[in-house]
Amino acid sequence: MEKREFRVDNEYRYTRTGPGRWIVSHMMRHPLFPIVVVVTSIINNYAYGNIQLYVGHGFDVITKAGWLAADLLVVVAFIAGSAITQGLTGVGRNIAVEFLAQRLERESREELYGSLLGKSQTFHGRQRVGDIMARATNDMHMLNLMFSPGLMLIVDSMLAMVVPFFMILTINPALGLVPAIFLVLLSLTLWDYNKRLTPVSIGQREQFGLLNSSLAETISGIEVVKSNVQERYEWNKFTGNARSFRDYFVKQGIVEARYWPMMAFAVCWGAALFHSLLLWKQGTISLGQVIAFMGLFGTFRFSTFISLFSFNLVQIGIASAGRILEFINYKSEMDQNSAGRGAHIDGRVEFRNVSFAFDENPVLTNVSFTAEPGQTVAIVGQTGSGKTTLTRLINRIFDVQKGSVLIDGVDVREWSMESLRSQISFIEQDVFLFSLSIRENIAFGVQDAGLARIETAAREAQADAFIRSFKDGYETEIGERGVTLSGGQKQRIAIARAFLTDPRILILDDSTSAIDSRTEDEIQQAMRRIAQKRTTFIITHRLSQIRWADHILVLRGGEVVDQGSHDDLLARSGDYQRIFALL
Fold it and tell me: Would you say residue 339 lies in a domain?
């Protein structure tokens, strides 16, 4: 079973060895719908062909001497019955294919979303958010359109050739000559058409992903764009990507303009009329049969024309499926290990000769230390020394590559991912808040928390006063990433969220950098109270926080060059003295 950090319960197993097989495996999850589509299409086209046969028969009736109105009424009744049958089966076919298309889009989106939730931070760090959104929305919708109307039209148009062809043979086998030649020519020209269209469809989807990701990146960083007066640069970049996307549509138009099947049909249509009239002149068939034959051959025209549109939808759908499957099949480095250890964490953290690298660039080298339960450990060092990466190995945002990280004497890789992460809280300098109410943001890690517990956590984080100053209080809606709040307010909400989860291990990564000194002192007092019962790691440049740490790690170039108490390090460590002097 593939590794994933999150797995949906009772997940349906699809075939993921290629876009085509993946699509078929989704379709076969609902086998009734494809059967209904094929059966109703056969009946629908037979009913339409029957209309042409009876129109021809009607000509034979009225060209005979002494014909009666009753004979013509019988013909009209059969034509009306066939038309009604055609209409009803058409409705049934359309309903079935639409249900199939909607379910495929829904289930594919669920599969992709579950897969994205299970991917590691390494995967998400390498992807552009805009490209992920393009695949999760537009590419998904292309799958829908591939089935309805794309594949529906292809199936229907194929049967609109096969069924009338056999009905032509029932009139007279000799009439099958020109239709047979046309079907061969159609197959060859469609093969050539799809061969030229495939790379254009793939390039079109890739360019759309690039266009979308570039736009999302610009909007997310709009403050940086404006502060550096780069609006013109971003405009030129976007319009350049948009022009490249447009160029693919031009290429598509050129391929479609050279659509030879319609030329083949036009030539064969004329040949069919000549051949049928020749047989009539020889007395082999009647004039009504000529009319019926031409009516049946005329059904090929719509099928030929619609393939210009339907095959393009299928090509785009397959290209989109390939882009979606690329993300789903991306191998994750970590597994949720649902059968792993799920005990209560006491808080003893031990690093044993830990090394870690990003893309073969060393970040941590041979790191070893021990933090006892209830201790506060401060991590200091210059920018880029590996402080944040070290803490992210504790809750397995990243996995060690050499050595081991142990919690309560058990390697973190042997813990259940859910049990491990649910007992560790991480507060970063760059706080992420959701477009929800303040109450929901604080309770994000404890969904069943009551308002009283939320307010208590907010008071401990010194956030209750400013929250109540808002008109809607705890129900105040905040913008994405908390754009309606100040930096200090966002950090206090994040701290309240951590207090509410009551973690056994608390990691604070410069979490009070945007808070004024007075508020920071109040928050630190609250932190000291809760830190007495849990292991706390602090990454900070504030002397006031470093001083009260039980243990201090000094990092340089990814290595622990010294560790100990503040007084000991200040007395013996040149690195710590230099850092302390800068602070």
Answer: no
